[in-house]
Specification:
This protein is an alpha/beta fold. The protein is 39% helix and 22% strand. The chain is built from 8 helices and 14 strands.
Length: 239
Amino acid sequence: MIKDLILVVEDELSTRVLIEKILGNKYRVINASTIKSAKEKIEVFNPALIILDLYLPDGDGFELIHELKVDDKKMNIPILLLTLEDKPEKKVLGFNLGIYDYMVKPFSHVELEARIEAHLNRSKLINKVEERPLFFGEFEVNDLERKIYFKHQEIKLTPFEYKIFCYFLKNNGKVVSRQDLAKFIWAKSFYQGRTIDRHISSLRRKLGVMSNLLETVNQYGYRFIITESHSHSKEVSIV
């Protein structure tokens, strides 16, 4: 069985050596000491997870996160920020950008290993794809291409909007909180500001005449309802 590959982006040699010692028996570990080198290795190796320092010789780790999260092919790579920086605003920015986790140095070896295993398991679950399109009324979900169609016309969604829409379909008729959505998208049960609301507003605009299916539930969150009058399919399983 091929071991999962983890990319460690860290400019301190001692930290890279330590992480490789902690994880080396269970995973394949490769290293990069700069953002430039990290980008090159991501293209070549497509890592299963990235451990990223915040401050690197040639730039800010947040820049790399942003680039990955707007790339359809790379946005689902789990990112764990491992840094000396312990400011709440840095953590919030990281989670709003889409990181999976944030750990502060010095760190527990056992905790790092446990978190990585949990994030890899979750990532594999989310990234399961359906070989055949799924139909929900006149909506078609092509998870292989990560595209949504309505009456055979593609609805141009961002990666985050696609995830949100699929989560609503999976929970058809149920009220879901903003925290539920944040946990599904970012593996954290909190969000800062109106990040989720902005994605929902954009999704509503793109749904056009079907936007009335997406209801706001005051003081709690949202509900997406497709009844049998809208749907030819009663059950759809979307991860």
